[in-house]
Amino acid sequence: MAVLVTGGAGFIGSNFVLSWIAETGGAVVNLDKLTYAGNLENLQSLKNDPRHIFVKGDISDSELVHKLLSRYQPTAIVHFAAESHVDRSILGPEEFIATNVHGTFRLLEAARAYWGSLAGDRRGNFRFLHVSTDEVYGSLSAEDLPFTESTPYAPNSPYAASKAASDHLVRAYQHTYGLPTVTTNCSNNYGPYQFPEKLIPLMIVNAIRGKPLPVYGDGLNIRDWLHVGDHCAAIRAVLARGRIGETYNIGGNSEKSNLEVVRAVCEALDELHPDSPIMPHGSLISFVKDRPGHDRRYAIDASKIRQELGWTAKQSFATGIRETVKWCLDHLDWVQQVENGEYRKWIDENYGGRQTI
Ligand code: NAD
Ligand code: DAU
What gap in Å lies between CA 185 and CA 167, rounded to an integer? Predict the structure, then answer.
């Protein structure tokens, strides 16, 4: 009995695949296109494990998805595959519409046909779990209450709009066709195997290399940080006990400004990398031109998942960030492997035009 995971070679997907096999012993069929963000090195420890079946392919390839569903008869689809980086969506939104909107639509169509072919308990127990983001709710001001599941959608970036569109499609497939879906809307994740284009791994890698730490605008934008291991545990809880047709907000109750986050990274490096030629690492902080349309604050009210499913975040930001910095220092070979030509090109495109302010 397997689950079909999409995007399982990415940051959260690979953490999910590793933890699913470790925690449940169950098998995973992992469908991933291996874009710049997909990395099989993340799954190296499963290389000879028959419970991990990797398939390189696109969620939009209906023929392939139909074949996989009919061959492996999964008990659930856990849908992570997406273009996930806001800055990339600002520079080039098209791929976000192709994968996040159209790809999700194609996947839903394949899931509907497969689910329709099931009978008895297998039909009753099947789930389509859609992994989404808190960015669909837009931006909060300092006085606003955190996002709940009934906060109106107000996506502000092409990325957020594409995820909002996919959430609406998932909702419609449940409402119209009865497909047993559940959706999770999670806050910012951090932890092992995160691609160094996102704030925390970018700052760790730049600081290790003695490069400037580019903080957008005034650095006072706020995110609600959650360790990826806690996100994976929440997804397992929703898959096991979440109610069909519901959405569940997931967050770490850990609001931090970007400056606080970058300073925490620098302090951890000062302690864990004392031989570094750059000391203190905080001296590398450099304020750069802001992200267009930059959302000011995200914060999650996770009381629904806590009360209904008994899930809470276990990892505090203070221990999680230290552990993540240590993980990077211990995995410099992994860092080097992702710092390939294409990644360098992205860094030039995104940060080349940003003046220091
Ligand atoms: P990621 O960019 O690290 O990984 C995405 C993965 O999807 C990659 O392995 C990539 O190769 C794969 N992929 C992309 N297009 C594909 C396609 N057309 N077909 C098959 N595979 C494809 O992303 P992530 O940060 O791990 O995020 C995973 C999911 O979680 C996304 O849906 C994202 O919106 C959501 N999410 C992320 C965060 C976060 O903080 N990173 C927070 C909340 C929700
Ligand atoms: O909230 C959940 C979302 O979190 C996910 O849906 C997205 O997939 C994920 O990428 C993340 O989006 P953000 O835009 O919040 O993450 P990012 O790491 O790109 O940026 C975090 C904050 O740090 C944001 O306010 C922008 C700022 N930032 C980011 C980078 C890359 C900087 O100041 N400098 C940087 O170089």
Answer: 9
For the stretch 88-110, pLDDT in tens is 999 999 999 999 999 999 999 99
User: Ligand 1 mean position to 120 CA, how many Å?
Assistant: 33
Task: Please write down the HEC assignment for all residues of 218-237.
Answer: CCCCEEECEEHHHHHHHHHH
CA distance 135 to 161: 9
Please give the pLDDT value at position 340.
77
Q: What is the mean pLDDT of the chain?
A: 96
Query: Which residue in 32, 58, 137, 159 is the catalytic one?
Result: 159
* Catalytic residue selected from 135, 224, 255, 295: 135
Mutate which of 84, 184, 235 for ligand 1? The one with the most ligand atoms within 8 Å of its CB, which is 84
| 306 backbone dihedrals φ, ψ, rounded to 5° | -70, -50
Contact 84, 6 (CB under 8 A): no
Residue 134 appears among annotated catalytic residues: yes
The model's pLDDT over 326-355, given as tens digits with 9 standing for 90+, comes to: 999 999 999 998 887 676 777 778 887 776
Residue 257 pLDDT > 90: yes
The answer to whether residue 121 is catalytic is no
Rounded Cα distance between 353 and 357, Å, is 12
Q: Is 39's C-beta closer than 6 angstroms to any atom of ligand 1?
A: no
Proximal ligand: closest to the CA of 35: 1
Taking the model in full, what pTM does it have? 0.97
For residue 283 the two structure tokens come to: 């001296």
Q: Name the helix (H) or strand (E) containing 31.
A: strand 27-32
